[in-house]
Amino acid sequence: MEAIISSPRAPDVVAELPEEVTPCILTDLQEEGKSAINSPMAPALVDIHPEDTQLEENEERTMIDPTSREDPKFKELIKVLLDWINDVLAEERIIVKQLEEDLYDGQVLQKLLEKLGHCKLNVAEVTQSEIGQKQKLQTVLESVQDLLRPHGWPLRWNVDSIHGKNLVAILHLLVSLAMHFRAPIHLPEHVTVQVVVVRKREGLLHSSHISEELTTTTEMMMGRFERDAFDTLFDHAPDKLNLVKKSLITFVNKHLNKLNLEVTDLETQFADGVYLVLLLGLLEDYFVPLHNFYLTPDSFDQKVHNVAFAFELMLDGGLKKPKARPEDVVNLDLKSTLRVLYTLFTKYKDVE
C-alpha cells in the first residue's frame, strides 16, 4: 500500500507524453490530444495529462486544481485523516500513505469500518479483479450509507468515484465517517478545493471549475451547534479549566471514597462507565443491580452500554439528556466527560 503523494503539474496546457510509450500508441494519443487541445473552439484546460485525452464521447473526469493541492489547510486535512486511519488500524498492521491509492479497492475501508463500527462485514478478504473490488466496495459503501442515512447527510461519493481514485469523493467519505464516529481528531475548518471537471463533447475536451466544500466548522461537523461554557474554557481559559477539573475530582471522590474508590484522571477513569453508574447510585442513595451493567467491561460495546445506562439513570433522576453521546465518553473525549460530571455537580453538590 506504500505510495508517494505527488502534486499535479500546473501549466495551462500539458500535452506531453512519456518517452517510453510505444510509437503506435504515442501517435494515436498525440493526434487525439492535438485535435482536442489545438482546436480554436477548445477551451484552455488546466493540467491535462495524456490519459485525459483518451476520454470517450461525453465521458467526464475530475481533478483537483494544483493550487488547491498546495493549500496548507488541504494538506493538513489529508495529514489528519491519514494519521487517524493509521491510528485506528495500527493493530491490523496497516499503514496508509496515500488516500487515493490505498483506499480505492475497498480493502482498507472495510477494515476501517469494521474497527470503527465494531462489526464484521460479509465480504471477501482479498479481491484482485476489478469486478471483485467493486463488489466489495459496494458492500462497504452500503454499510456506510446505513450508518449515515438516519442523519440525512448527503452522500457525495459512489462506487465509481471511490474506485476511480477520486480524491474529493474519498475525502467526503472520510470526513463523514470521522463526524459520525466522533473521531478524536481536529479537522481543519472551512477547507474548500477547486475542482476541474473535464468532459469530452464532439471530440473536444471542455473544462469547468467548481468549488467543493470539504469541511465546515467544528461545531457543525461534530453536531454541537450551541457553544457552552466548556467550549469557552477549552478555547480561551485553559488555566480555569484546570480549576474546574480539580473541583469535579473533589466532588466525585467525596462520594466514590465511600466504596474505597478514587479518581485521579477524569478523562480515562469514567470512560468505561463503571464509576459513572456507581456514582449515580451513591448520589441517589440506591443500589444498582450488577446485572444491569458490566462491572468489568472488556469491549467498546460494553463500555458504551454502561455509559448509556448511566445516562438513563440521569434521566430517571430528573436531569436533562446529556449533550454528549455515550461514544464520546468512551472515546476519551474530555470535554464530553466534563459536561456529564458538571451536570451531576450542579444538582448534587450539596449531597453528603
Could you describe the 3D structure shown?
The protein is mainly α and 352 residues long. Helices cover 49% and strands 7% of the residues. The chain is built from 16 helices and three strands. A three-stranded antiparallel β-sheet has the order 1-2-3. Strand 2 and strand 3 form a beta hairpin. Helix 13 packs parallel to helix 14. Its main location: other. Belongs to the parvin family.
Q: What share of residues are in beta strands? A: 5-15%
Order of helices and strands: HEHHHHHHHEEHHHHHHHH
Count every beta strand, where a strand is a DSSP E run of 2 or more residues.
3
The secondary structure category is mainly alpha
**Largest sheet, described in full?**
3 strands, antiparallel
For the largest sheet, list the strands in their spatial order.
1-2-3
The rounded Rg comes to 26 Å
Keywords: Actin-binding, Cell adhesion, Cell junction, Cytoplasm, Cytoskeleton, Repeat
Pfam families: CH
Membrane topology: Peripheral membrane protein
InterPro entries: CH_dom, CH_dom_sf, Parvin
Short key terms for the protein model shown above:
elongated; repeat; 352 residues; mainly alpha; 3 strands; 49% helix; three-stranded antiparallel sheet; 16 helices
